[in-house]
Amino acid sequence: MSRIGPSGTIGRAQIRDMQIGNRTQIFIGRSVASTPGSVREDVLVWVRRRYHQVDGYQEMATILEERRVLLLRGLAGTGRFTTGLHLLDRVTSTGIFRVDGKKIVSDLGKGDFPKKTAGYVSELSRHDAISLSEETLDKLRDVMEEQSAFCVLISDNDTRDLAVLGGYAMAYEPPNSAALLRKHTAEGCWPTIRRTSNNG
């Protein structure tokens, strides 16, 4: 309890569903570690079966195919990472790997992307995302071309116009929640919905 009313804090937890007042929120997804390493095949199979295309998906795919680097900029928890995996899965069969976002903007080298023809994905911190420039993305593209690889970067929104990032970036909007729920239920992923009365 706080001076302004009931409150609660949740730390180090994965919330699958919750109710606040008379609203029920349903969270459907699969967590993927953000630490460097490979993305398991079973995770990619899950994404292939349940992914629902977001607005602008085809344009995202075109940027990735033509430039080998794509920056998805949007709100956390809206499926940016899943979209990145799905896009990379389209263009590579070698595997997908998570990489350290800090190295991408500060000390980029070919050694950070050892697998040729692979896909790479990285979630950037707010600080690293703000440090991105067209020149940094050009350098990353050069490394991707040398490795015949592809890279999707994930970042939060910032105040800069997307145009300053040289055509590599797209604004990411979450998928339609009703359509996403239909897709998941069609694949046999039935979420748990907890409802409680206002009387407890």
Descriptive notes:
The protein has 200 residues and is an alpha/beta fold. It has one domain (34-186): 3-Layer(aba) Sandwich (Rossmann fold), CATH 3.40.50. It has helices at 41-50, 57-67, 80-91, 101-106, 126-131, 134-147, 177-186, and strands at residues 17-20, 23-26, 37-38, 69-73, 96-98, 119-123, 150-155, 169-171. The longest helix is centred in the C-terminal third of the chain and has 14 residues, at 134-147. Mean pLDDT is 79; it is low at 9-31 and 190-200. It contains seven helices and eight strands, in the order βββααβαβαβααββα. Helix 2 (57-67) packs across helix 3 (80-91). The strands form two sheets. A six-stranded mixed β-sheet has the order 3-5-6-7-4-8.
CATH topology type: Rossmann fold
What's the CATH class label?
Alpha Beta
Mean pLDDT: 79
The amount of beta strand, in percent, is 15-25%
Main β-sheet, spatial strand arrangement: 3-5-6-7-4-8
Structural class: alpha/beta
From N to C, what is the helix and strand string? EEEHHEHEHEHHEEH
Radius of gyration: 19 Å
Kindly state the number of beta strands. Answer: 8
Tally of DSSP helical segments: 7
Low-confidence stretches: 9-31, 190-200
How many distinct domains?
1
Task: Specify the oligomeric state.
Answer: single chain
The major sheet is characterized as:
6 strands, mixed
Specify the overall morphology.
globular
Distance between the termini: 17 Å
CATH architecture level-2 label: 3-Layer(aba) Sandwich
Share of helix among residues? Answer: 25-40%
